[in-house]
Amino acid sequence: MLVLGLMSGTSADGVDAVLAEFSGxxxxxxxxxxxxxxxPYPKYLQEQVIEIEQGKAIKNNEILDLNESITEIQAKAxxxxxxxxxxxxxxxxGQTIFHKPPQGQIRGGSLQILQGPLLAQLLMRPxxxxxxxxxxxxxxxxxxxxxxxxxxLIKKSYGWQALxxxxxxxxLTFIPPVSGPNQSSSVLGWDCGPANSLLDLxxxxxxxxRFLFDQDGNTASKGSVNEEAINLWLQEPFFxxxxxKSTGRELFGSSDLYHxxxxxxxxxxxxxxxxxxxxxxxxxxxxxxxxxxxxxxxESIRPIVLYIAGGGAKNPFLVSEIKRRCxxxxxxxxxKLGIPCxxxxxxxxxxxxxxxxxxxxxxxxxxTGARRSGVLGVMAKPS
Length: 383
Known about the structure:
CATH class of the largest domain: Alpha Beta
CATH architecture of the largest domain: 2-Layer Sandwich
CATH superfamily of the largest domain: ATPase, nucleotide binding domain
Order of helices and strands: EEEHHEEHEHHEEEHHHHHEHEHE
CATH topology of the largest domain: Nucleotidyltransferase, domain 5
Largest sheet: 7 strands, mixed
Number of strands: 12
Number of helices: 12
Shape: globular
Number of domains: 2
Radius of gyration: 20 Å
């Protein structure tokens, strides 16, 4: 089946689209990427989404207008990626503007901006969306869901393999080996903290809006890392929490950046822009390294390789810091597996949509903490 996958992540920088083909066993499908492209959000729209993600109040008519704008951009990306309209179904994640993980007996919730029925009408094809809701209803975190796709799309190796997506938030996947005592283990995955969310906000603040992100890590590479600050930050409750866990800009947004910059100033005095960017970038790498170390301490699991995906894979300074803090693990990009860095998440959404069409139950307990398996997503059909 030909499926179109659409993904817009926490960075809110645009829509990644993948046209893919799936066939065979849903648990280990045959797959092929046919086309891939990205369409950026207009600057005003990106700014509006990020402000809402961080709690800015918005009027009812404004949320409706935003909903329609996001849907139209998704449709634009879909038509550009699949100009011949050969996809049979479309999977669309929508744009997350709020995410609340469950707390004890209190249910979690997650809100993705998208008008599914409108998108189906614009494309004249069935659209599967709202993938997180069923998992949340079953007691899970609703995120991350990409580890499910990783386990299905990537061949097992002789050792544990890990993947990290460096979007606004960093999330990890661990795939068990093909043989040995861990071969029947479940795939693992969770959100481990900020990847680009704080970096982008800091760069925008430092440059007074002239730069949206630290291109190639150029500013960070000119500074020195304040390890004292990082070591203190790593002791915060979220980073000490045992998975399952998920997060977003609600926790790692402008307010969080303000407190980290204030803390840096209190321990280092006057601090220059390169030192700020170097420390924040190294912090993003450190949360990944600490989570990998903690997994080994808990379960004696340590991957032999870490594949990097997402926009952060283009930041040499961030990648070098990950390598430094994950010694003994081979670190490379997911391109080595035949999946372009920008394709991993929209490809996962395409697979989730195909699974929905196949009535395939997703076992997410080891990732999100859901009590039982379920078919994820809701389908909207054109009239």
